[in-house]
Amino acid sequence: MSNLDRQATPSVCGGRGFVVAEPVRELLAPRHVQLGESTEVRRLLPNLGRRMVGAWAFVDHYGPDDIADEPGMQVPPHPHTGLQTVSWLHEGEVLHRDSVGSLRTIHPRELGLMTSGRAISHSEESPKPHARHLHGAQLWVALPDAHRNVEPYFQHHSDLPTVITPGLVATVILGELDGARSPGTTYTPIVGADLALTGGAEVRVPLDPDFEYAVLSMSGEAEVDGVPVLPGSMLYLGCGRTELPLRALSDAGLMLLGGEPFEEEIVMWWNFIGRSHEDIAQARTDWMASARFGEVHGYDGGRLPAPELPPVALKPRGRVR
Fold this sequence. Notes:
- By secondary structure, the chain is mainly beta.
- The protein has one helix and 26 strands.
């Protein structure tokens, strides 16, 4: 998914200096962003007070939206560098096209994982016809410097491992949880899991104390370590935890995001992740010149132009502002 903000601002992220080394309970409020003509998203990362969680650098939550009489998601071809995109649905479907020739419809609880590497472009749209409701999350994972220029590719996994305990079905999206490992390719120690809770359930999810974590609320009412989280909000949890207590006040859907704190400082602007102003400026120039990113075939519409760069040089700094 693209960042369609025409007034794109740089996000300077990464580095261990700003990681919370002990357990915390930091509730992050979303910023509402219009995505295309008919989809509004709640942006949780980057956030005013928190830029990354492990290698997770961007989190949008959208829906549930009634799109029966609407075009639904319509995101024109746009570029990415230096990251992986993770598409995750609870309702509806998204048709993915990209410049390496991928064409795939992603359904609920299937992993759509696109690794941009040095450069890729893609589009996302609700297919015709489409389901009445659309509800999901779009996330980005920053690639470490050693791998940020890999050849671009796309993976689709419809059969993901689960961890099942009374009151909880946890689907492992990326990385490993309680011995279950996702088939999705990763480049840093990371975990992403979909947690489906039954109303009234009280469970404890095992965690790695070396990881920092956050929980995104997708639906229903739940308490995370005693803190109520409502749909569209995210609770940052810090590091140093060996387990996470969850209590469902109704049937609820959560996403657990975590990973080793990302050591490198990065620059994230529009749909690019780099290490310097020059990285970002070159990526923008290449996109506007129709170079390096390839072509997306089959989308009914033009490419998305890049916004203007800010008048000052982009500099990597830390994980919080």
